Amino acid sequence: MSTRRAPSRLTGYYFGLIALLYLPIAILFLFSINANTTLSFPMRGLTLGWYKNLLESGAVLRAARNSLVVAAGSSAVATALGTMVALLIARYQFRAKGLLVTLAVLPLIVPFVVLAVALLILFSALHVDRSLWTIGIGHTVVALPYTLLIVVARLAGFDPNLEEAAMDLGANYPTTLRRIVLPIIAPAMVSAWLTAFTVSFDEFALALFLAGTEPTFPVYLFSQLRFANRLPIMIALAVLLMIGTLTLVFIAERVRRVE
Amino acid sequence: MIRALRLSTRTSGLMLILALVATACGGAAATPTQAPPTAVPPTEVPAAEMTGSLTVLDWAGYDAPDFWVDFKNTYPKVTVNFEIGASDADIYTRMKAGDQADVFHPYTGYLQFYVDEGLVEEIDTSKLTNWDKVPDHFKAIGQINGKQYFVPWDWGFTSVLYRTDKVPEGVDSWAALLDPRFEGHVSMWDDGPGAVTVSSYINGWDETKITPEQLAMIKEEWIKQRDVNLFYWAGQQEMEAGMASGDIWVAYAWQGSYAVLLGQGVPVAYANPKEGRNSWVGVYGIRKGTQNYDLALKFLDAKLAAATGNNVVNLFYYGHSNQDVMNGITDATLKQAFSIDDPTILQKTNFTPNLTAEQLDAWTAMWAEVKAAP
Amino acid sequence: MLDRRATFWVLYLPPLLWLGAFFVVPLILMAAFSFRADMRGEVLQWWTPTLKQYAGLFAAGSYWRLLGISAFMALIVALISTALAYPIAYFLAFRAGRRAGFYLVLLLVPFWTSYLLRVMAWKFMLGSNGVINSFLMYTGLIHEPLTALLYNRNAVVLTLIYVWIPFVALPIFAALQRIDLALFEAASDLGATPFRRFWRVTFPLSLPGVFAAFFMVFIPTVGEYVTPLLVGGSRGSMYGNIVQDFFTKAANWPLGSALSMIMLIATLALVALAARIVDLRRLIE
Predict the structure, then answer these.
(1) Interface predicted TM-score of the whole assembly (ipTM), two decimals
(2) Where are the alpha helices (H) located in chain B, listed in sequence order?
């Protein structure tokens, strides 16, 4: 049994790589508690002041809020649309099926910068000002393949006889979908929603092209990267976000185990 | 089991709805510029009571209240919204694409396009109370085809900035930016027209009449320059940080960087090349078709006022078009940066001419090929 | 049944219209722009199609070379990150046991930090005053900082590999997890050594995951422009930087669109080629 082997070279490899992966993260963390705005070794002083400044920095928090809003909205739309396409793939036969699937999955292989450019042209041609809405729309297109693939994978293992049974008992198709299918694929939809949320929150390539007066967090971060004295505050926020994500994951794992 | 399933459907549904609601709220809050502009009341309304809203397309940093403090204090009830443009090309593209900003902030070199494409209103200078404080040569910069389309605001030099400890013999020519002696320690501005300007100075060519053959030679020059260049800077702070740390010894720079580094105690000097320094002027224009013409004009007038001007000089180390502000500078660092004590400096300065559309296309394409070259 | 038909349209129209409006139409517009001579006039107006932009691009060989170099860099990043991530995925699938979930999260946490900041962290590490140089000088191994670590193509490749490794492990892990352990028993019973078992059973069965991982990295990286901008210096530009420049610095949308079209077609061609080697549809199911 492989699990009973003593810690092998493979374990060493894992932890070695993890250490390497975390080294830059550690540096970032040190930066956020560094007394200076330039990082040098040995460090000259520690402070939690940057975290305090963060709470007072309206612009940074606003950018983070914008990212949350865009991510929440775009992931909801992407999940809804992805689920619709997934249901179509799994439950219907129609001539345009192949075309629809290809279309829905195509954003995966279109380079971000090309899609950004194309959407920029579209919005400019329609005289639509760039805003959080335009970023959100871009994110739905990019996230759709992911939500589709996640939900379709769940539907693939789903026994269609359950729906047949419901309909034999007198339910019409929309009711069947709502009361039988959706509850069962709900976990997959949540997973798809979380994936789309993650994709949107940190997305930068599209957001940079499509941002208007309100920046998302990555766009704001990029514009501030040049100001060395503002960097520690941004890093403090990123560290907090990372801790927040970890906490959420931890809680989700606990909840999952309870069920 | 079924109860648990129904619960998770409900929660999922709830989450989706919450998300949509959040987006709606966020979206509503995030698009102030889409609200229709309120009618500007007649000028009999006292300034302190005047309401309305104005949208300004500006560069990052200029949205800070310091740079429109006079307007803010005179018209406290007017809302000013800012859109941030990343570069002259970005601002131009946005205005072309139908951006609804009332006021925008381009720089010399890009001004002809706005007039040619009918994107800018004429300025009624009789309504500008601070207009007489602007020297004539600055007024002229804002005139295209004989009409006043732009109000000059900020200005400065471009030259070669260098570390005096790393380059003790000094720099006396723009050619220092391409000098193999400084291999790995040069930083050039990431801009095609800027590169063409430098080459035209070095080679003694007329910047407004660059031929395709000359452009090809310029391209080769800058492809070779990549061997000595460490990185191109898009924002001044990158270059300043590089100079402060000693990675960069010689850089294409605006005089703001010179003042900043002097203030940090870094040993730098701002060259007076034998070909002459370059000078640029930032201007404000009013979008053609704006509903807020009068309010925009008041905004521009306030931009020329003293408190705003002093902030530009002291906070950004740029010049201001209000001559009273410039005459009032006492700080030694700034006087050094602006060469205020050298009255002949303007004779030795080359002002940036306005580009034609063909030149912009050709020169930016040249720069892209420099970056793409093997 | 009528309501089944009605449901079909309810499910079919929204995604179709959404994708049509925000995916197909923009790409068509961009394609149309690539046949425009210049930006004079309105953004949207009738223009006579011209091959001028493409002609210019074909004449300038440097863009093709850059596309090739960008694809090559993407290839290296994809290969190395996949190779480095494979043992991680193997560890998670077969050695981690009950703690696999925890180890997986541990792996992904760096991926959940801001991408931009992770790239900046590498800038701090590789710079002449950075961590690596400071450490090497402190230990006396070198006396002058190494300047070759940053602002070149190598820095870009290195940073991208680092950024992608956590993510790349996922599809491989998923593929390895699906392998029926009974197959291992069978192989051992037939006298296979652990290595042969891996090479003949495990690895081939994990290939769909490996291919998925490879393409998941390769395709976005060809069009990458952010990392080269931050750590690439004057010579580390990739194709995506040039496209971005034409839109943000040059206001030359026709030329930028033509460059984008070329990249799009090249990427599609590569994927089509790959689809022949690996049947991608099987991956979806």
Answers:
(1) 0.84
(2) 2-30, 69-74, 88-96, 111-116, 136-141, 192-203, 212-225, 236-245, 255-263, 293-303, 306-316, 323-327, 332-338, 357-372
